[in-house]
């Protein structure tokens, strides 16, 4: 950790870290910052993009979790991450599946996790690694998935508990200086999806028929604080995405989900700062770490 600073990223399932923050992770590691990635579940309920692995689905062998865990190990290597953890250990919490399905109600589903109990698990990690920055999702989890929403709640509760001297935790308190939520600028996503839709057939992609209604982690431009340039780390980001073959396929400059929905592999990643102050200029900021930690 040449720069003496640390960033913790809290994600819901294997592949989320690469889809939402793969370039950021690769850049931070390359710059010598410490990076810890915490994953809430092994993604046991996920859809499967590769037909020959369809037997792993929850409705057949129910063996997707271990395969996604292997994919995540490979993605961590591609991004250069040495410190990856499952919240509470591997298998502590199970993928809850999409909102409203029976899997949400399983006793071991992450959606059913007690917020303070899971928050303490996150706070333990925060006190141990003492990050200058914590990154997670917005309150809707980016797109309304139960585990993404719960990851947001648990990460934010973990930040609170880590700074609470009365919390039932070991180690000295740690007040995280900056907290960010992942985001995508609305203007950019509408423009990109509109342009992509004109080539969807030739690319073999499915694109939302009304890009303006695209819901996944989209925020108005003025809400966003940081545009982080990851263009020098696109190869690492694409390699990490390519590791998650049960969930998506990399096709040149695009990544395609099991649903067929395609998106460009972005050379920038965007963040809303919810602790540490909103930007004061009209332009995006370009750095994530507080000045003292750079």
Brief account:
This protein is α/β, with parallel strands linked by helices and 294 residues long. It has helices spanning 16-30, 64-79, 115-129, 146-162, 186-197, 200-203, 234-243, and strands at residues 6-11, 34-39, 83-86, 133-136, 178-185, 218-219, 226-229, 248-251, 254-257, 262-264, 268-275. The radius of gyration is 18 Å and the shape is globular.
List keywords for this structure.
294 residues; alpha/beta; Rossmann fold; 8-stranded mixed beta sheet; 3-stranded antiparallel beta sheet; 7 helices; 18% strand; globular; hydrolase
CA(first)-CA(last) distance: 12 Å
Order of SSEs: EHEHEHEHEHHEEHEEEE
Strand proportion, as a percent range, falls in 15-25%
- Supply the number of structural domains: 1
**What sort of overall outline do the alpha carbons produce when their principal axes are compared?**
globular
CATH class: Alpha Beta
CATH homologous superfamily caption: LmbE-like
What class do helices, strands and sheet pairing give? alpha/beta
CATH fold node name: Rossmann fold
* Helix proportion range: 25-40%
- The assigned CATH architecture is 3-Layer(aba) Sandwich
Count of discrete alpha- or pi-helical segments spanning 4 or more residues: 7
Name the poorly predicted regions: none
Quick one: biggest sheet? 8 strands, mixed
Mean pLDDT comes to 94
* Strand segment count: 11
């Amino acid at each position: 950790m040449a720069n003496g600073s640390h960033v913790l990223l809290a994600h819901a399932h294997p592949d989320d870290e690469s889809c939402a923050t793969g370039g950021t992770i690769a850049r931070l590691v390359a710059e010598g910052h410490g990076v810890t990635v915490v994953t809430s579940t092994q993604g046991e309920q996920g859809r499967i993009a590769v037909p020959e692995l369809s037997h792993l689905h929850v409705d057949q062998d129910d063996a997707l979790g271990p395969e996604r865990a292997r994919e995540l190990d490979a993605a961590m290597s591609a991004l250069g991450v040495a410190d990856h953890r499952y919240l509470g250990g591997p298998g502590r919490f199970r993928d809850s599946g999409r909102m409203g399905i029976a899997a949400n109600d399983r006793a071991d589903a992450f959606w059913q996790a007690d917020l303070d109990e899971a928050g303490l698990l996150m706070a333990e990690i925060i006190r141990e690694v003492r990050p200058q920055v914590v990154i997670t999702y917005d309150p809707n989890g980016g797109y309304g998935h139960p585990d993404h929403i719960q990851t947001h709640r648990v990460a934010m509760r973990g930040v609170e508990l880590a700074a609470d001297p009365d919390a039932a935790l070991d180690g000295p308190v740690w007040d995280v200086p900056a907290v960010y939520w992942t985001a995508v600028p609305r203007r950019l996503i509408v423009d990109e999806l509109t342009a992509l839709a004109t080539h969807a057939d030739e690319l073999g992609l499915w694109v939302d028929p009304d890009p303006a209604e695209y819901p996944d982690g989209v925020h108005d431009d003025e809400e966003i604080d940081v545009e982080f340039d990851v263009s020098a780390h696109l190869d690492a980001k694409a390699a990490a995405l390519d590791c998650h073959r049960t969930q998506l396929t990399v096709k040149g400059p695009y990544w395609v989900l099991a649903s067929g929905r395609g998106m460009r592999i972005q050379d920038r990643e965007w963040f809303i700062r919810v602790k540490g102050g909103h930007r004061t200029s009209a332009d995006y900021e370009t750095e994530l770490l507080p000045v003292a930690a750079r």
